[in-house]
Amino acid sequence: MDPVFHFVEYLSQQVPGIKLVKKSKSRMMRILNFFCFFNENFMTSTITVIGKTIYIPDRIPHDLKLISIVAHEYVHIKDFKRYGILGFFLRYSFPQIFALFSIFALGALWSIACLIALFSLIFLIPQDAPWRVTLEKRAYGMSLLFNLWTQGTVTPTQVQSTVDVLHGSTYYWPGGSPALSRMYFDILIESAKHGVLPPEPEYADVWRYLNQEKYLVKPTT
User: Fold this and answer.
1) % of the chain surpassing 90 pLDDT
2) pLDDT above 90 for 151
3) Both 71 and 120 in a single domain?
4) In the predicted model, is pLDDT for residue 61 greater than 80?
C-alpha cells in the first residue's frame, strides 16, 4: 500500500474523514492560488489543509518526507477540530481579514463610509499575526520532532531554516519574534529527546505510528 495513504488511513482512525486530494483536481485550490500570489510555490510544492482534507501537488514523491508534511498538516486538522473551520480561519487570517471591509466602499462611493471602508485596506500591509505564528509554530514543531524521531537528530540549521520560513513570505510576513520561535523549537526538541512530548494528543498519535511502522530512530543527546 502507498505509504502516505497508509499513514492517512491511520490518522483517519483518530479523526474520521481525513483524506488526500490533488490540488489540480480542486477548483477551490486553483482559486486560492490566485489570492496566494505571495507564495509562488502554492500549487507546485505547498501542501494545504482545509477542514479534514489535505490538498497535495501532483508531482511530489510519496515517501517519508511527504509523510512528515502530512504529519505537519495533521496538527492543523486537529486545530480545525478544536476551533471549528470559521474559528480557525479567523485566527489564521487575523489581522488581514479586516481588509475585507473595503468591499463596502463599492456601495458607498464618495462618502465618509467609503473612505472608512477603503482605510481597512491598510490591513493588507504585512503586520503582526500572532495567531498565525502560534498555529504554524505548533505544526512546524511536529515537523522538527518528526525529523528527530526518524533521523535521530535535528540540526541547528534545520531549526533556523524553519524559523526563517515561519517568519517570512510563505506566511505573509506574520511578524513576531524569530528569537522566541527559535527558543520554542529548541525546548521542544530537547524535551522530546528525553521522552517528553507536548500535551496535545496529535504528537503522540504520530509517534505511535512511527513506532508501529518501525520508523523510529533513537535520538542522539
Assistant:
1) 47
2) yes
3) no
4) no
β pairing state of 53-56 and 19-22? parallel
> Among 22-36, 64-78, 155-169, where is mean pLDDT lowest?
22-36
In a domain, 173, yes or no: yes
Prediction pTM value: 0.83
Which of 125, 145, 174 is where one domain is finished? 125
Question: How many structural domains is the chain composed of?
Answer: 2
Q: Is residue 32 part of a domain?
A: yes
Q: Please state, as a whole number, how many other Cβ atoms lie within 10 Å of the Cβ of residue 52.
A: 16
H-helix or E-strand containing 85? helix 64-93
pLDDT of residue 207: 96
- Which residues have a Cβ under 8 Å from the Cβ of 216 and sit 6 or more positions away? 149, 150, 207, 210
**Contact yes or no for 95/123 (Cβ under 8 A):** yes
Q: Which residue segment(s) compose the domain that 103 sits in?
A: 95-125
Q: Give just the sign of the alpha carbon dihedral 172, 89, 182, 151.
A: negative
Grid cell digits, residue 150 = 526518524
Residues 72 and 109 in one domain: no
